[in-house]
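Fill in residues.
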């Protein structure tokens, strides 16, 4: 593996992944990466995650930071950033802000912003997939990107994760291009980094997140791109990173971003 950084990795702490933090760190070391960002799901509001299957429990996020700090100390040469993935909850932006503020105060160095919920519907959860049958796809896309743009403009997040997650099960708006155009403009004006996620290659849609059109627009508009596997198991760390790096190079990127604490960025050559 060339000198890349996997900037989106989970562990069993989120309730829907396998691998302890130590096992994920092992996998990071073995993948031969330049560096990585651990990005566990921040605790969600109880009503959105009553069974604890989407996020860390409220009482373990401090332990998460402490454990990763210990590992960073113990592993010589391990280039690890302590991050988290936060939910943009459109119906309660004050809660979203407080969740991110509190995470940063507890030592989270980099925060990914994600839209996983639309009016309380976890639209990307396979167990809630049948809800799609009751929806108009164009309307879902409109709502998703409207929320995504608000999240990108909020200034809360270092990186916007898996930008077109809404296509996960293969649902596409008739005019997807207009959403990619708008979202890339908003990301550029907000100065937020955007993730290119190889997780889409493991999902029914079988594509990178985001679409290559949006990647091109982001590059043209000067938006910094990170690479993330969204690993939920040790063998998913750096998933298909060589292919992803080649794709980004072909689309015109020459560097990728490796976000650091205090909004600093290390640039890695492709
Ligand atoms: Zn996510
Ligand atoms: Zn994730």
């Amino acid at each position: 593996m060339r000198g890349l950084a996997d900037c989106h990795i989970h562990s069993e702490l989120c309730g829907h992944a396998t691998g302890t933090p130590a096992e994920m760190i092992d996998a990071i070391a073995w993948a031969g990466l330049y560096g990585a960002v651990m990005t566990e799901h921040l605790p969600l509001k109880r009503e959105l995650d009553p069974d604890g299957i989407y996020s860390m429990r409220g009482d373990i996020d401090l332990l998460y930071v402490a454990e990763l700090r210990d590992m960073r100390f113990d592993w010589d040469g391990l280039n690890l950033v302590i991050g988290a993935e936060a939910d943009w909850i459109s119906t309660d932006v004050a809660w979203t802000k407080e969740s991110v503020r509190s995470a940063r105060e507890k030592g989270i160095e980099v925060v990914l912003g994600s839209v996983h919920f639309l009016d309380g519907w976890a639209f990307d959860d396979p167990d809630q997939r049948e809800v799609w049958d009751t929806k108009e796809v164009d309307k879902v896309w409109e709502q998703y990107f409207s929320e995504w743009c608000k999240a990108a403009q909020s200034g809360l997040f270092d990186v916007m994760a898996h930008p077109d997650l809404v296509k996960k099960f293969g649902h596409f708006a008739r005019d997807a291009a207009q959403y990619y155009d708008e979202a890339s403009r908003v990301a550029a004006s907000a100065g937020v980094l955007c993730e290119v996620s190889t997780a889409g290659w493991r999902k029914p849609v079988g594509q990178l997140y985001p679409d290559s059109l949006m990647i091109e627009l982001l590059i043209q508009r000067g938006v910094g791109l990170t690479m993330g596997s969204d690993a939920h198991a040790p063998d998913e760390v750096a998933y298909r990173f060589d292919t992803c790096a080649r794709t980004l190079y072909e689309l015109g990127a020459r560097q990728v971003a490796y976000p650091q604490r205090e909004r600093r960025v290390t640039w890695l050559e492709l």
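Residues 5-269 form a domain with the TIM Barrel fold (CATH 3.20.20.140).
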